[in-house]
Amino acid sequence: MDEEFRALRRHGYRLTPQRETIMKFMKTTPGHPTAEEVFSYVKQSFPSISFSTVYNTLRTLKKVGLIRELAYNPSRFESNVGDHYHVVCLNCNHIANFIWPSMKELQEEVEKQTNFRIAAQDVGFFGLCPGCRSKEKE
Amino acid sequence: MDEEFRALRRHGYRLTPQRETIMKFMKTTPGHPTAEEVFSYVKQSFPSISFSTVYNTLRTLKKVGLIRELAYNPSRFESNVGDHYHVVCLNCNHIANFIWPSMKELQEEVEKQTNFRIAAQDVGFFGLCPGCRSKEKE
DNA sequence: TTCACTGCAAAAAGTTTGCACTGAG
DNA sequence: CTCAGTGCAAACTTTTTGCAGTGAA
Hints:
2 copies of one chain form a homodimer. Chain A is of the alpha+beta class. Chain A folds into 2 domains: 2-78, Arc Repressor Mutant, subunit A, CATH 1.10.10; 85-137, Dna Ligase, domain 1, CATH 3.30.1490. In chain A, 48% of the residues lie in helices and 20% in strands. Chain A has 6 helices and 5 strands, in the order H-H-H-H-E-E-E-E-H-E-H. Chain A has helices spanning 2-10, 17-28, 35-45, 51-64, 103-114, 130-137, and strands spanning 68-70, 76-78, 85-89, 95-98, 117-128. In chain A, the strands form 2 sheets. A 3-stranded mixed beta sheet of chain A has the order 4-3-5. In chain A, strands 1-2 form a two-stranded antiparallel sheet. In chain A, strand 3 and strand 4 (95-98) form a beta hairpin. In chain A, helix 2 (17-28) crosses helix 3 (35-45) and helix 3 crosses helix 4 (51-64). Chain A is flat and about 45 Å long. The mean pLDDT of chain A is 93. Chains A and B meet through strand 3, helix 5 and strand 5 of A and strand 3, strand 4, helix 5 and strand 5 of B. Strand 5 (117-128) of chain A pairs antiparallel with strand 5 of chain B. Chain B binds a DNA duplex through residues 9, 12-16, 18-19, 34-36, 48-53, 55-57, 60, 73-75.
């Protein structure tokens, strides 16, 4: 975790207990929580924390590159910033990850076609998760 | 345009002047307007139209499959429902399209990896558009 | 000591809803 | 004639902001 705290300081941010708590939660949760979910969870071990601090902190952590924001509504966050992409269940909103090594090639193709300089991508697939598919058949 | 109107009726929806006006705008605009932009534009030729009618209509057109909603914040809409994907400029929010025939293969790969049944995808790349790139250098 | 951060409350931004009236079919 | 659609206003959800007090460095 020290690595993350150093990253904050390097960018000129202070290491407050609130940030530490939120960062710790983000590092340990396997899911893709919303700000609301982060708030609810973190409130258990840090009862006085406010909603806006959660929002501000998530934005700060994102700026430093420690977490990533997924553009759903509401936004979702994850501390796994490595190369992977998401599938979202249209029925239960469960999110799973998948990997795809050739994404870099697609990105180059996009730059060639559009003349944009690509900095980030959000590749989302939507469908029915295994659980919902089996329920569907019943 | 008759094709679109028939699609509405086929789904049991009535063809009102409001829907006709919005559909006509969506068909002719080359961009990816927000609900607000659709409202502002359509209001010029249909001054009495309300914001909620625009929202309701966009949702209806989407349900019938005549338009597609892009999950940005705010949502954006386009009548081009054919196979293409988007690049968004991080600086000016300009949206451009790109095509990529092997998307189907990636979708199959995703289904294999996750065991989801994929129904839709939203592939978005983010970066700097040609215009903003040249301004950046100055 | 200092100024970035917190907590609170209020506002903003985007979207949805309830309801009485209207007009498409 | 009937009921889906409209316009209006109000509610709701998600996110942002202003500000006085607090505590990390």
